[in-house]
Amino acid sequence: MEIINKTENCQLGDVLKEEGLDNYGLIVKDNDGNFVLMDISPYCNGVPTFTTEKSQVWEGPYAYLESLINECEDWHKVNAKLVIE
């Protein structure tokens, strides 16, 4: 994936990658309407992915998107697309 920029202009649905690691996160809202960085890493190793449970997300929950982005200092926005087959 190509690095687009740090975390400028992030919004719901953006994919972020942790610097130097193969960790990926998707900016979503949890069931309470708070912003979280949901783990969508391609490996599992017994760790739940694609969940918004507080103990299983990379960052969050935060009431404001800006608060979530401020906590993602080591994350970069990447070019990604959803493919549904």
Can you describe what's shown?
By secondary structure, the chain is mainly beta. It has one domain. The chain has 1 helix and 6 strands, in the order βββββαβ. It has one helix spanning 65-71, and strands at residues 3-5, 15-18, 24-29, 35-39, 59-62, 75-78. A 6-stranded antiparallel sheet has the order 1-6-2-3-4-5, with helices on one face. The longest helix has 7 residues, at 65-71. It is globular.
Outline the secondary-structure elements:
Elements: E1 3-5, E2 15-18, E3 24-29, E4 35-39, E5 59-62, H1 65-71, E6 75-78
Antiparallel strand pairs: 1-6, 2-3, 2-6, 3-4, 4-5
Summarize the structure.
By secondary structure, this protein is mainly β. It contains 1 helix and 6 strands.
